[in-house]
Design a protein that fits this description.
Length: 202
């Protein structure tokens, strides 16, 4: 298992949960599980694959979970909005960029918060309310850096890693996984499918 400063920073609870999940799998299925080693395909040469190729020396590990370093897309890196690291760097609370009346939200922006849909959704709402406030003079809004990420464990038990990602270091907690956590995750998915894609689940 690799922790890397360029990986999404979910904090220690995430890694404790992974370890627990892994030991539960060993207990229930024995220790004869074959572990596959990921190797980037030949011929590809990107910053991500170059980084992964450097993990070859780690093949002695029983388990390696590697997250490729996030890099901005070329269109973002080339834009006049790009700042440090070629990411867009809006004010992280108002989402306003250095250009007047231009807002940025989601994966094109620098972390924190982590690059995840839940943050993209929250940031976009704040940016939209601030744009509306500029136009109509209504109340403005600020993003506070809180968010969560669902985790599913064996046995239909779910939990969410929740936290305040603007804190230094991020203040993150993981609730004990249970069936209520799984229900919450399913309700979340149902809501998003309905509200974003107009898809109903029977
Ligand atoms: C495998 C995977 C699993 C994930 N799982 C989760 C999860 O469980 N929970 C979670 O919260 N997040 C998850 N994420 C992260 C989540 O998908 C992103 O954080 C989220 O989609 C970011 O939204 P966004 O709108 O900022 O960017 P995107 O969803 O990437 O949208 C950007 C859009 O811009 C378009 N685009 C790109 N270049 C151009 C161009 N030049 N011109 C026009 N359009 C362009 C793209 O086609 C795309 O439609 C996952 C991501 C991946 C890759």
């Amino acid at each position: 298992m690799m922790r890397n400063s360029s990986s999404p920073n979910f904090g220690d609870p995430f890694f404790h949960a992974l370890r627990r999940c892994r030991s539960e799998q060993h207990t229930s299925r024995g220790r004869k599980r074959k572990i596959r080693i990921f190797e980037p395909s030949r011929g590809s040469d990107t910053p991500q694959t170059r980084a992964l190729k450097n993990f070859r020396f780690l093949w002695r590990y029983t388990l390696l979970l590697a997250v490729p370093q996030a890099v901005p897309s070329q269109v973002v890196a080339d834009s006049p909005l790009a700042g440090e690291g070629s990411w867009v760097q809006p004010d992280r609370e108002t989402l306003l960029t250095r250009l007047e009346r231009v807002y940025a939200a989601g994966d094109c922006t620098a972390s924190p918060p982590p690059k995840a849909g839940i943050f993209a959704e929250a940031e976009t709402g704040v940016a939209a309310r601030n744009i509306a406030a500029e136009i109509d003079g209504g109340p403005s809004d600020r993003f506070d850096g809180t968010g969560y990420c669902f985790l599913e464990f064996p046995g239909q038990r779910g939990s969410a890693l929740e936290g305040q990602f603007f804190a230094q270091p991020p203040e993150v907690r993981l609730a004990e996984p249970d069936s209520g956590g799984t229900s919450r995750n399913q309700a979340f998915e149902t809501e998003r499918l309905r509200d974003w894609l107009d898809v109903g689940l029977s």
